[in-house]
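Could you help me review a protein record that somebody else here produced? What it holds is a sequence and that sequence's fold in token form. I need someone to confirm that the token line plausibly describes how this chain folds. Take the sequence as given and treat only the tokens as open to question. This is what I was given:
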Amino acid sequence: MRKFASIPPRVWQADLKAVRGKLEALAVHYHLTTSGHANMLGLYYVPIAYIAHEIGCPEEGASKGLLDLIESKICSYDHQRELVWVHEMAADQIAPQLSPKDKRVKGVADQLAMLPICPITLDFYHRYRIAFHLYDERNLEEFELSMPEDVEAPSKPLRSKEKDKEKDLGKGEGTSGFRGSGKSTGTSETMFTPYPIPASSAEGKTFLLSQGVPVDEIDACLRNLLGGNLSPYELEGILTNARSAA
């Protein structure tokens, strides 16, 4: 379960402008973007009955609110598989776009690869394949092959399987871990596994500084680290935001 969700203020002037005054739609949107069932992709399994129960309204009201969001092109819903996709949620929770070397690319690819290939997941892939460099991920090869011929081509050639094997066999980085180098192999297991809790605040602060955490972010990161709630994925996001603001 996610520990927090990011909802930018612009949603009131952009995403939700089309459903102003439609209280069921606003309640359903808030649930979809903050629910414990959700993930960073905004693409996940959630039966309408869950939505209705958690916002405290009849199932008909939840269905009406969801339909309003669908008609406003804010989200899509696969009724057969009970999958929802909140269209701009990945951009809000992760970033509008990622660099090819950003470790979060691997995290996105791993989560998407666990979902079935169907119209709603293909729409997600089409929306974010260039922005998140998903076309270069081997576990999404079937998604890439499912794209129409006129889809936008990547700006660089796809890496070959030989290069992938060479990188995997001989040029991997150290494993993530509090007392290690702090670098990550980028696997979903290491990326989302919290760092071990340090023996003291001083030890934790030293670790965070060694990773390049800005001074103004140290206190917040240290609280999460001491509470066992700081993972390599979250640290990478903090460092990326700091580099963007510099």
Q: What stands out?
A: Residues 157-186 have pLDDT under 50 and may be disordered.
